[in-house]
Amino acid sequence: MKLYGTPRSPFARRVRLALLKSGITFEWIELSLGELFPLSDRLLKMNPLGLVPVLELDDGIYLLDSSEILAHIDATLCALWPSENPLNTQARQTSTLAHGIMTYAVREFQGLRVASPLNGSTESNTELILRAILIRSFIRNPCSPFHQLYRTCRDLPG
């Protein structure tokens, strides 16, 4: 089994940590930024969306999304979720919330990077600063998903 990703991808890190914690043997294949920007043929052959992580199974099948990969691991290799309800439901909800937060954060920070004047963006510095303030306020807002995730994890047993 081979896991393709980058160290900075929270989605690849999520899968990598699950595999390591479960003691599952796999090969970590670190993709360079040059393979992600612009997308390389190698990555596009594995995942037409050009996203990481990608888990290559021993039979050559590629799993393309961290949630799909974790579900596969849980169903076929090692239980990742508590087996009893309501803990199972709560753990899956927490995982889904964390995934959504990561998706939002990655999208926003990529937007900041792409919108940089160094990349030829017409967005003004003021607009970039306002976008950064919006991200910061989202993270710090007590009603935000970040705080909901913290409260949920804080109250989980173990």
Question: Characteristics of this structure?
Answer:
single chain, 158 residues, alpha+beta, Glutaredoxin, 4-stranded mixed β-sheet, 4 strands, 56% helix
Largest sheet: 4 strands, mixed
Rg of Cα set: 18 Å
Q: What is the count of DSSP helices, taking H or I runs of 4+ residues?
A: 7
Termini, distance in Å?
30 Å
CATH-scheme architecture of the largest domain: 3-Layer(aba) Sandwich
Mean pLDDT figure: 80
- Using the coordinates above, name the CATH class of the largest domain: Alpha Beta
- Topology as a string of helices (H) and strands (E): EHEHHEEHHHH
- Low-pLDDT segments, ≥5 res: none
What would the CATH topology of the largest domain be? Glutaredoxin
Shape: flat
Tell me the β content: 5-15%
Count of domains: 2
Number of strands: 4
Task: Lay out the secondary structure.
Blueprint: E1 2-5, H1 10-22, E2 27-30, H2 33-36, H3 41-46, E3 54-56, E4 62-63, H4 66-76, H5 87-114, H6 125-140, H7 145-155
Parallel strand pairs: 1-2
Antiparallel strand pairs: 1-3, 3-4
Helix pairs in contact: 1-4, 5-6, 5-7
Structural description of this entry:
It is a single chain. With 158 residues, this protein is of the alpha+beta class. It folds into two domains: 2-76, Glutaredoxin; 87-155. The protein has helices at 10-22, 33-36, 41-46, 66-76, 87-114, 125-140, 145-155; strands at 2-5, 27-30, 54-56, 62-63. The two termini are 30 Å apart. The mean pLDDT is 80.
